[in-house]
Amino acid sequence: MRFQLTLLFAIGSCVPAAAAKLDVSQLKPAEVKEGTAVISDGADFLFAIESAKQPALFVDNEPVGPMQRAGSLWTYSGKLKTGRSHAFYYMVDGQRVGGKTDVAA
Fold first, then answer.
1. 3-state helix, strand, coil in the chain (%, to 5)
2. Which segments of the chain have a pLDDT < 50?
């Protein structure tokens, strides 16, 4: 429970206003740790990963903007094209980490 509250506070403090309407409480701690956590509301998306080193997020094999850090939690919020599925993964210290291949928008 403590991890979840810390996670929610950390995400809430570094999420831009555009994604503030996303319900971050739906993120599962295990998915954050694995690098598979993502939630959406229409075109608005929030990605989260726990990592000691800075991750780089790739969506549809393209790098996206810088991630925001809160301790070991890294988040990125942005918009994705709707009406199709997307894939994402992270690069951490030269290694591909986490991700999913069928994220609906």
1. 25, 45, 30
2. 1-11, 13-19
Beta bridge partners, 80, equal none
The tally of domains found in the chain comes to 1
Return the pLDDT at 21.
62
Our CA dihedral for 88, 43, 105, 21, rounded to 10 degrees, sits at 90
* The two structure tokens encoding residue 62: 């393209």
The CATH number of the domain where 96 resides is what? Answer: 2.60.40.10
Cα–Cα dist 87/104, whole Å: 9
Parent domain of 8: 2-104
Read off the pTM.
Answer: 0.78
CA distance linking residue 92 with residue 54, whole number of Å: 6
- Report strand pairing: 73-79 vs 68-70: antiparallel
